[in-house]
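Sample 3 of the quickstart, ligand manganese (II) ion:
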Amino acid sequence: MLACCIDRDYAELAAVMLRSAHLNGNIPDVEFCVLGDGLRPSDKEKIQRSVGRPVTFIDIDDEMLGRIKNLRTTSGWSRATYARLLLPDQMGAAYPRIVYLDADTLILGDISYLFTLPLGDHLVAGVAARGSTSPAELNMALGRSDDAFYFNAGVLVIDATKWRSEKASETCFALLHSRQFPFLDQDVLNLLASGRALQLGWQWNAQMADDYTDAVVVHFTHAKPNSLECRHPQQGAYLAVRATTAWADAPLRTKRQRQWKRYRHSIRKRWLAVLRRLSPRRAMP
Ligand SMILES: [Mn+2]
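Result:
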């Protein structure tokens, strides 16, 4: 099972990511699943038409929503980010392993290894985070030693059987409600899997690489590849796959659209804060 979690805003990215996995991933028998937050039938139809193989859609229902709706969001991270924590429970026992991919990744080559690599006693496998925050800083925020393995949560191989048996989602949500984490659920996943996360090579989740020649999975961690602002060296590879999807003729997004999105998010947040003040009991998670 290959899964991603998105809201409407990420429909295009998910369609292109899944299309690239279909075309390049060498995983003909793997089921594709989209856990969707508020996707419309037209979004699903468009994604389905783009990918080239059947896609299973699961709607985030009220019960799932109840578990994630009071958690902190940012303009860059919607509540759909938390939905990945629900995946193992949602899929059930028929799925011993889940390969989770962020919608803002692109599959350039054979990823069958992710579906077969031995996890042993590890709960997850992932790739070290690379970005403007150093691993030492990331770890310090979690009270861990500087050199602990801190993974980026955009590409995860999850032992879903183990996850379910230890009720790991509950642990994550309890942590998320206990205090603020700078990197939200990514921090919490790293805490949960401390000492039992298997480190994969950078090519399985290439972030801010100097050279993408050997990358198998590219991760657009900053400007998204469907935006005019994007200067990522692999944007061309994204656009080439996009040209074979239902988004082929869609205009690229402008900076103004992103600013508008940020503005909408801050208004919504302020409004929710007002509502919470009016009815404090409802604000309790
Ligand atoms: Mn991402």
